[in-house]
Design goal:
The protein is mostly helical and about 110 residues long. Helix content is about 85%, strand content about 0%. It holds the Pfam family Exo70_N.
Length: about 110
């Protein structure tokens, strides 16, 4: 067995094993960094290509086709009603203030 020999030889052998493990780990880290860089480059190229495909197959859209004119009319009617309600509230408030003043003046 290996441990039956000279301690100096065993020490050299173990140092050689440790050195080999460290070299392997460094090579693995370098390979991993290169793989990550390659993946990042590939992703950027795919993104550019996807944008080019989208641009090439895009057609202009008329804004009239996006909105139903009847919805616009309904929205405009609602706005008018809301404005009318606000005016009515203001009118009622002013009437109440005037009525209160008259009552106070009558005292």
């Amino acid at each position: 067995m290996i441990f039956d020999g000279d301690h100096h030889e065993i020490d050299q052998y173990l140092h050689a094993v440790v050195d080999e493990i460290q070299r392997s780990m460094q090579l693995t880290m370098i390979a991993n960094d290169k793989a990550n860089s390659a993946i990042q480059i590939a992703m950027a190229k795919l993104e550019d290509e996807f944008q080019n495909i989208l641009i090439a197959h895009t057609s202009p859209i008329e804004t009239n086709s996006l909105v139903d004119p009847s919805l616009y009319m309904i929205d405009e009617r609602n706005r008018r009603r809301e404005r009318g309600a606000v005016v009515m509230e203001i009118g009622v408030s002013l009437y109440m203030i005037d009525t209160h003043r008259e009552a106070m003046n009558g005292l």
